[in-house]
Amino acid sequence: MDFSNALLKKKIVICVGAGGVGKTTMSVAIGFLAASLGKKTLIMTIDPAKRLADALGIHVGGKPVLFEQKLNLEQKWQPKAPLYAMMLDTKMAWRDLVTRLSSSGEVRESIFSNRFYKHLSEEMAGSGEFVACEALYTLASESDFDLIVLDTPPTAQALDFLTAPERVLSFLDRDAFRLFSAQGFSFFAGTQRILMGVIGKFVPGHFLQELIDFLNIFSELYEPLVKRAHSFLHLLKSQETMFSVVVAPRTNAIRESIELVQALFAEKFAVEALIVNQVSPLLFFQWSLLEQREALRSLLFSMVIEPQKRDQLSSALSEMLDEESKMMNEEEKLQSQLQQAVSVPLFLQCPKIRPDLNLSEILQALLPRLSK
Amino acid sequence: MGRHNKTLREPQLHFICGKGGVGKSTYACALAKHFTQKKLRTLLVQVNASDSHSAILKTTFIDSTLRQAEPLLWVVNVTPKDSLREYLLLKVPSPQLYRLIFESPLLRSFLKFVPALAELNMLGKIWYHAQEKNEEETRYQRIVIDCPATGHGLRFLSVAKVTYEGIKKGGIAEEALQIASMIADAKRSALHIITLPEEMAVNEALHLMQEVQNSKVIALYMLVINGLSKAIFSQASKEIIEQITASKLLPDFDQLINAAQKRIIQAEAELAQTARMQAVKGDKQFLQLPRLRGNDEAAVTEMMLFNLNAFA
Fold first, then answer.
1. I need a labelling partner for B273 at 20 to 30 A (CA). Which of A252, B117, B120, B174 fits?
2. In a mutagenesis test of the B interface, which of A198, A309, A356 is the best target, namely the one with the most B β-carbons within 10 Å?
3. What does pLDDT average to over chain B?
4. What percent of chain A has pLDDT over 90?
5. How do residues A31-55 score in pLDDT, each as one tens digit?
6. What's the pLDDT at B3?
7. Which residues from chain B sit within 8 angstroms of residue A173, using beta carbons?
8. Nearest CA in chain B to A122
9. Chain B residue whose CA is closest to A253
10. Tell me: the pLDDT tens digits for A96-151?
11. How does B105-133 read in b/e, with b if 16+ C-beta sit within 10 Å?
12. Sorting pLDDT into bands at 50, 70 and 90, what band is A173?
């Protein structure tokens, strides 16, 4: 079983991982791999680097854009089916969701103007992930893509992604609604009144009132929101969805991804691929270091160069090889730690990409690695 | 003498901000060690973090109980729950009443809706330690705060200011104002922004700097660019490598030459990103740290500390 085969069986791929591991680039590469296999694919990104966004022809808040550029790639890797990309604006996605679920324009406007809405939609940890899953669910059920690749938002900690729906739902907790809402107030026993008195001492009444107002207006959205959250969680756990954990060979990232994979398994999500990205290029050398050095020496001697410059280059290359091989050893230790800690069906390695490569070059470097 | 003066003028509180994965915790630990080597009593604070400092400092697990890790170094992991408990114990006279409040589901729900209060409480705890005295002397001469990598920029540091402006009246508003004033005072509080020489990371750092300038929540003190790779290839070497590539002399060497090219281009890209930071740094201190890689976080921190000492 290889990654290409796994992709053929899926409708959704979700890339998760800590920030700075190249998750977005990897999501794009996975999308192109799927298209090269003949799947009509959508790549949903959240916060791509400008170069990548420009290369894909997408901008914030846009709808899916058909990728029509000619790529300088081997025929094997060229898209064989339409490929779309989009950049999700989480703020806008929240607005769309509230608009869709609220009964009247009045309700909608009073939600948008409440400061607690701003907190829910912009600042609360997990709210970006929540609405990304929600947008994914809508697209998956209302469009005819064979595959959607979701690049998850950059989180402080990769685990945030998992707890997002739960966090958002508990933020909109039913009990809290009852406790704070106007109807609920009459049920308050004496102790609760004392507590309200204490809170009221620190926080002025209008602040509390605003919160109660928000809960009251939002309560009509609560049921449909919970229903949708359950539906998308169901979709995320179905056979059609595959999680790919992207990680870089660095101590922190490895530690975090071990926790992440374990947590995903515990929640019964299907982690089918572990992609170690940004691996030292030495790992992909076909020759041993000794052979490299020998070959290097004979190359340099075959060229017409001043001896001084030759020595300079020779020692620089040696230094590079030393440094890279040290790094590779460290990386290999980390990778074996990872493999010992978690068992995932597919283990892939991708090289660190030079920052000046264009989209074709990036894909040419990554696709052969991914389809291994 | 000059150095001594500088130490006196230095702020007491050092807030370290940056994205996850840029070496923020390592830098915070190295900075704290740097202060202890200057014979300053230092408190190192993690903010509701999954404790990473103990691995770096090679100490036992660091929780919400403040304790001494080294002769001049104290450590703590500030959590919303414990900060709130301490806060309420100060405010609520009777333990029974306190228990009633703390264990009430209503309070839990309330805090869920107003998480800013939890963050304000954590800042409040830091503020408390900043005031603490021991026999007339300031207990902690330096406090290093490893801020949460929220991806929301200055949110954590702005909480006090935003709370004050939002509610204006009442006990919490007054306390929020005191905390906000402490953070905004350049003589007392310093912001360190740390980033990597990569496009996205620098974008974020520049964005954060813009936010600092606009909001005046805290004064920027130091910019740190971490993880610069060593320049290995001289100009002449670069030219020869280009020559080899252009001539396609020996295709068998592709991988080696590619790796060298990658290094050169990487270094150039890093320089370009460093220049972007340099262009906006103004009169702020700008610290450039080499890439340190390894499994031994304590060793990496030692190396960073060495660089930090050399700088200061």
1. A252
2. A198
3. 84
4. 35
5. 999 999 999 999 998 878 788 888 8
6. 47
7. 109, 112
8. B152
9. B21
10. 989 988 888 888 998 898 877 887 787 666 778 888 888 899 999 999 999 999 99
11. ebbbbbbbbbbbbbbbbbbbbbbebbeee
12. low
C-alpha–C-alpha distance, residues A181 and B266, integer Å: 57
**Tens of pLDDT, residues A187-233:** 455 555 666 666 666 666 666 677 777 777 777 787 888 888 888 88
Residue A173: closest CA among chain B residues belongs to which residue?
Answer: B109
Q: Which two tokens stand for residue A348?
A: 């892939």
pLDDT of B157 higher than 50: yes
Q: Where are the domains of chain A?
A: 3-281+327-370
B91 neighbourhood in chain A, CB within 8 Å = 202
- CB proximity under 8 Å: B 174-193 to A: none
Is B104 close to A191, i.e. CB distance below 8 A?
A: yes
Contact between B249 and A303 using a beta-carbon 8 Å cutoff: yes
Q: What is the CATH number of domain A3-281+327-370?
A: 3.40.50.300
pLDDT tens per residue across span B3-16: 445 665 789 999 99
Residue B150 token pair: 């929220």
**Most A-contacting residue of B111, B113, B154, B232 (CB-CB within 10 A), to test interface:** B113
**ipTM of predicted assembly, 2 dp:** 0.75
Residues of A in contact with B276 (CB under 8 A): none
